[in-house]
TrEMBL record:
Keywords: Cytoplasm, Kinase, Magnesium, Metal-binding, Phosphotransferase system, Sugar transport, Transferase, Transport
Main location: cytoplasm
NCBIfam families: PTS_I_fam
Keyword Cytoplasm tagged: yes
Reaction it catalyzes: L-histidyl-[protein] + phosphoenolpyruvate = N(pros)-phospho-L-histidyl-[protein] + pyruvate
Protein's recorded name: Phosphoenolpyruvate-protein phosphotransferase
Highest taxon above the source species: Bacteria
Residue intervals of the PEP-utilising enzyme C-terminal domain: 250-540
Enzyme's top EC category: transferase
Gene source species: Gracilibacillus halotolerans
Taxonomic lineage: Bacteria, Bacillati, Bacillota, Bacilli, Bacillales
Length: 571
């Protein structure tokens, strides 16, 4: 038995065998071959095995994750059947008597370079497909396992250095019981996805991939961040009962599903959910969400080879709005960059991606992409209670420009005779300290604020949210953060606007009493945190908590704040 600790990223206990999602070593040697036709059939075998595998993955992804996720594999299959790519490989084996690995690599590299240097974005995207497919064929030639998360069909715990959001999007909840990674923090997107999929997860263990062998038995405790490798039978029974207790607790929480969120002194606050795709709405409804406080639309743009069309986006937004009925749905416009990449946009690598060309900065620059999204949102607006917010707003000018584009697209649609809802609230995320500091000035122009503490904390504390070595600086209760949050709430209320929070802090049991006391109107969190939060808020008096405000805001450390709240709320 060996125990590791990491960052508790998604609640629940998972006990299953390890499945290592590692990129295999694909290095090879150059050999002179005697018999080219044998070598060519070895290449064809590897291609055919890859084809069968991709067909299976595609079918699997379509069934479990929907057409959108399956599409990427169709593109890969097309590459595998392209004679323009395959024939030069067999020619090379024949004429130069080199082994199949050399021919595959050389021809693939030529095509990749050719496509990458083209002006046409569509053609550049083909380079990414060829790269992926080549790796798969190479793995078969070398007889090494190529991991396919979408193909997992037995109960496992996925072990990886990190999971990209598109890796996570391929995980099938039926079989993937949990995951654990070397890197990442509570607010990295793999962690956020785990919570929306309701899969227990521990991230940032630093060494899990080195410590675990394929097939080892693993326990993941997503509540306290523990991972146990090859547990004893005592540990298995101990964790099995912890798992049962958690399930029972969930049933208790479920009793509050259809109740409003009211504090013990009768004040209503809204508990909303953060979602990534229309499929998440089922979880929001099952967990008693009173709305969607953050729809992260970037997942529509990820895990594929090209930008989503206006119609594709429209269908997704419409589906979310219709499923939520008259409940509010806050859609955030595209927030790409940071740890969320879009390979097909071919953006240059940056030294500090979290401080770089991302979110609204990119959208205002590439207004073709932005306008398409705005049109899709406006068209969908008639199907529910839509609110739109812009991410990473640093200046009023950015907000004004984004709003102007939205209104321009609205006018165009109206002129084209398309119906658009006239009461769409337009707000911003407060994620950048400068915006939190002058929230008063913003409050005059925006309809609402949603505080994104995942980024607000990283920028205020100057601590990369992806770097577990500085994760101790992710301090939501730090008095600097509380003062910024308070400033935003006061500014909103002074102008008769509302203030919400959609960062992870909003679902944190120590932060909830503080935020209730500061007067936060809307708390948006992972769907699975809603019922525990409702249970907690029912026992809290807003009036009492508000009376601690000045004391809390003048404290010196996060520890002091935490100790105070624990004592006052018996935690
Ligand atoms: C945030 O920054 O708090 C937020 C909700 O946005 P994201 O986590 O998607 O960056
Ligand atoms: Mg953010």
């Amino acid at each position: 038995m060996k125990q590791l600790s990491g960052i508790a990223a998604s609640n629940g206990i998972a006990i299953a065998k390890a499945f290592k999602l590692a990129v295999p070593d694909l290095s090879f040697e150059q050999r002179k071959i005697e018999n080219p036709s044998d070598e060519i059939s070895r290449l064809h075998d590897a291609i055919n095995t890859s084809k069968t595998e991709l067909e299976k993955i595609k079918e699997h992804a379509r069934k479990t994750l929907g057409d959108e996720h399956a599409e990427i594999f169709s593109a890969h299959l097309l590459v595998l059947s392209d004679p323009e790519l395959i024939n030069p490989m067999t020619d090379k084996i024949e004429s130069e008597k080199v082994n199949a690995e050399v021919a595959l690599d050389a021809v693939a590299q030529t095509f990749i370079q050719m496509f990458e240097s083209m002006d046409n974005e569509y053609m550049r995207e083909r380079a990414a497909d060829i790269k992926d497919v080549t790796k798969r064929i190479m793995a078969h030639l070398l007889n090494v396992t190529f991991p396919n998360p979408a193909l997992i069909d037995e109960e496992v715990i996925v072990i990886a250095d990190d999971l990209t959001p598109s890796d996570t999007a391929q995980l099938n909840k039926q079989f993937v019981k949990g995951f654990t990674t070397n890197i990442g923090g509570r607010t990295s997107h793999s962690a956020i996805m785990a919570r929306s999929l309701e899969i227990p997860a521990v991230v940032g263990t630093k060494t899990i991939t080195a410590e675990v062998n394929e097939g080892d038995m693993i326990i993941v405790d997503g509540m306290d961040g523990t991972v146990i490798i090859n547990p004893t039978s005592d540990e298995i029974s101990q964790y099995t009962s912890k798992q049962e207790q958690f399930e029972q607790q969930k049933q208790e929480w479920a009793k509050l599903k259809d109740e409003p969120t009211v504090s013990s002194d009768g004040v209503h606050v809204e508990l909303a959910a953060n979602i990534g795709t229309p499929d998440d709405i089922e979880g929001v409804i099952n967990n008693g969400g009173e709305g969607v406080g953050l729809y992260r639309t970037e997942f529509l743009y990820m895990g594929k080879n090209e930008l989503p069309t206006e119609d594709e986006q429209y269908e997704s937004y419409k589906s979310v709005l219709e499923q939520m009925g008259d409940k509010p749905v806050v859609v955030r416009t595209l927030d790409i960059g940071g740890d969320k990449e879009l390979p097909y946009l071919d953006l240059p690598e940056e030294m500090n991606p979290f401080l770089g060309y991302r979110a609204i900065r990119l959208c205002l620059d590439r207004d073709d992409i932005f306008r398409t999204q705005l049109r899709a949102l406006l068209r969908a607006s008639v199907y529910g209670n839509l609110k739109i917010m812009f991410p990473m707003i640093a200046t009023l000018d950015e907000f004004r420009q984004a709003k102007a584009l939205l209104l321009e697209e609205k006018d165009k649609l109206v002129q084209e005779g398309t119906k658009v809802n006239d009461d769409i609230e337009i707000g911003i995320m407060v994620e950048i300290p400068s915006t939190a500091v002058i929230a008063r000035q913003f409050a005059k122009e925006v309809d609402f604020f949603s505080i994104g503490t995942n980024d607000l904390i990283q920028y205020t504390m100057a601590a990369d949210r992806m770097n577990e070595q500085v994760s101790y600086l992710y301090q939501p209760y730090h008095p600097a953060i509380l003062n910024l949050v308070n400033n935003v709430i006061e500014a909103a209320h002074a102008e008769g606007k509302w203030a919400g929070m959609c960062g992870e802090m909003a679902g944190d049991s120590i932060a909830i009493p503080i935020l209730l006391g500061l007067g936060l109107d809307e708390f948006s969190m992972s769907a699975t945190s809603i019922l525990p939060a409702r249970t907690q808020i029912k026992q809290l008096s807003k009036e009492e908590l508000a009376s601690y405000k000045d004391q809390l805001l003048s404290m010196s450390t996060a520890d002091e704040v935490e100790a105070f709240i624990r004592e006052k709320t018996n935690q």
